[in-house]
């Protein structure tokens, strides 16, 4: 199982909302979440929903250390591979 | 102040304090979302009280609420804020934005200007019940799906201070800020605290109050107070100072006001609705103590704070509890202050129900517009006023009158009393 960018966008939007200002896509995978308008709480919420939906668990420390969407996807997919 | 008495002019607090003027008003009320819509409803006696429609309330002993109909949060605030805000915060954000726009004030821009700086604008609000609807949903998740499913935003979305926090973030109001929780008196306490921050480096302070707790759980909590009317007739359920008074109707909403130091407001060419000339708060003794309630004292202290006497007051916006004993106490305080039938008294909240932390700022907004338009809004539905009260209650229809000074009273359950004196802007 691989968690894709589309999965992340879906979950992030569900957790922290969306607006027209910034859209997360393949072009800005390396932009910090803070520049994309998502704070640490949004990421904690997203990680909680990821666990619920994909069974992938990240510790709070891991989540708060994540800065970009690419890092987030790397982390959850690494955790998913470990769990498999 | 030209009408100040000599004694009052010697009061150091009065002479040392900058004049606090209101330059913007934003309203979210059951009978009108937006200031002008609400004010027209208020003058025409259009009520926002009706039966609960969002869920089946037929088994509740009280089924009437003052609900803001047709409020679609997504039309007013950014999508990013929706997952982290309760209905009360969305209402506060809408009214706060309206007040700042009405004042033509952009705190982010003001922060760049001389005399303001990063901490030159603050926000002080009142809230009495927190974010009920949000918490109701999250608590249901907690017991049905477990703690992992509870939103992280529950950590602050429920909280009394959340309206202040979200307004601060959204409008870059980084100066001295706070929240006041003293039930219905809280809205006046917030205005008093906001005024106190002026002159401490603060030039502008967004203030007021907002409450919304009419979801099933919220309504149950209001029922537990024992103060709700059990009537099913929206026109007669909440009748303060009437012989049929038998409780209150809970409502949602409130008002946000832009308070500015007068010199700063004039310097940027702001339109001024009026001045917060006086404020005071007192605490009533415990029931059965034999000592009098503190409302009259709050009014006297607020007038003294403004260097004004009772003869200066042109109209009183009453707390109007709608409970016989509390109404008797307020009428007694008004007689002691002004004499029998000594001043016009009104309570336009008969059209909205009681709004808790949001109620008194809405009354202050009504007072400011009453001064502007020379008209006292009516207390609707009062056909049989209690004769012993001997109040000059403005009933049924608005009353035209030249107005310069209004006294706004509020009592919060638990012994809180507060009074604010609002004055017309000085004309050059």
From TrEMBL, chain A:
PROSITE patterns: CARRIER, PHOSPHOPANTETHEINE. Gene3D superfamilies: ACP-like (1.10.1200.10). Residues 2-80 form the Carrier domain. It comes from the Bacteria. The keyword Ubl conjugation does not apply. Keywords: Phosphopantetheine, Phosphoprotein. This is Acyl carrier protein. It comes from Streptomyces liliifuscus.
UniProtKB/TrEMBL annotation, chain B:
This is Ketosynthase chain-length factor. GO terms for biological process: fatty acid biosynthetic process. SUPFAM superfamilies: Thiolase-like. PANTHER family: POLYKETIDE BETA-KETOACYL SYNTHASE 2-RELATED, POLYKETIDE SYNTHASE-RELATED. GO terms for molecular function: 3-oxoacyl-[acyl-carrier-protein] synthase activity. Residues 17-424 form the Ketosynthase family 3 (KS3) domain. It comes from Streptomyces liliifuscus. Keywords: Acyltransferase, Transferase. InterPro entries: Beta-ketoacyl_synthase, Ketoacyl_synth_C, Ketoacyl_synth_N, PKS_Beta-ketoAc_synthase_dom, Thiolase-like. It holds the Pfam family Ketoacyl-synt_C. It comes from the Bacteria. Belongs to the thiolase-like superfamily. Beta-ketoacyl-ACP synthases family.
């Amino acid at each position: 199982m691989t968690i894709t960018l589309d999965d992340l966008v879906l979950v992030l939007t569900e957790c922290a909302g969306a607006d027209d200002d910034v859209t997360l896509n393949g072009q800005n995978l390396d932009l910090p979440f803070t520049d994309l308008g998502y704070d640490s709480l949004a990421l904690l919420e997203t990680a909680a929903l990821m666990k619920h939906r994909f069974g992938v668990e990240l510790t709070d420390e891991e989540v708060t250390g994540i800065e970009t969407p690419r890092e987030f996807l790397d982390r959850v997919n690494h955790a998913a591979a470990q769990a498999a | 102040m030209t009408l100040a008495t000599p004694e009052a002019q010697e009061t150091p607090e009065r002479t040392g304090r900058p004049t606090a003027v209101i330059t913007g008003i934003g309203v979210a009320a059951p009978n009108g979302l937006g200031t002008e819509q609400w004010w027209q409803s208020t003058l025409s006696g259009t009520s926002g009280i009706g039966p609960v429609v969002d869920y089946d309330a037929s088994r509740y002993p009280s089924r009437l609420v003052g609900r803001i109909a047709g409020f679609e949060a997504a039309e007013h605030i950014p999508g990013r804020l929706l997952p982290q805000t309760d209905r009360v915060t969305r209402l506060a954000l809408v009214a706060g934005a309206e007040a700042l726009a009405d004042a033509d004030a952009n705190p982010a821009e003001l922060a760049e200007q001389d005399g303001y700086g990063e901490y030159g604008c603050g926000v002080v609000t009142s809230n009495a019940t927190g974010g009920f609807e949000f918490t109701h949903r999250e608590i249901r998740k907690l017991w049905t799906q477990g703690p992992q499913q509870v939103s992280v935003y529950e950590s602050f979305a429920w909280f009394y201070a959340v309206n202040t926090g979200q307004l601060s973030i959204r409008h870059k109001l980084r100066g001295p800020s706070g929240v006041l929780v003293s039930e219905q008196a809280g809205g006046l306490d917030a205005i008093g605290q906001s005024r106190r921050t002026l002159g401490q480096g603060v030039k502008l302070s967004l203030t007021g109050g907002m409450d919304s707790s009419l979801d099933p759980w919220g309504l149950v909590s209001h029922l537990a107070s024992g103060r709700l009317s059990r009537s099913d007739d929206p026109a007669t359920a909440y009748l303060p100072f009437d012989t049929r008074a038998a409780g209150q109707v809970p409502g949602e909403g409130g008002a946000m006001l832009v308070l500015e130091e007068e010199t700063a407001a004039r310097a940027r060419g702001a339109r001024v609705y009026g001045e917060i000339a006086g404020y005071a708060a007192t605490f009533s003794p415990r029931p059965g103590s034999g000592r009098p309630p503190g409302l009259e004292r709050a009014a006297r202290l607020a007038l003294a704070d403004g260097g004004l006497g009772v003869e200066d007051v042109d109209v009183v916006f009453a707390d109007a509890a709608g409970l016989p004993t509390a109404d008797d106490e307020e009428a007694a305080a008004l007689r002691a202050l002004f004499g029998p039938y000594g001043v016009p008294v009104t309570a336009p909240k008969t059209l909205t129900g009681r709004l808790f932390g949001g109620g008194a700022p809405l009354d202050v907004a009504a007072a400011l517009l009453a001064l502007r338009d020379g008209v006292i809004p009516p207390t609707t539905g009062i056909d049989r006023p209690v004769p012993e009260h001997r109040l000059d209650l403005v009933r049924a229809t608005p009353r035209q009158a030249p107005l310069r000074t209004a006294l706004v009273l509020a009592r919060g359950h638990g012994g809180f009393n507060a009074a604010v004196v609002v004055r017309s802007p000085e004309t050059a």
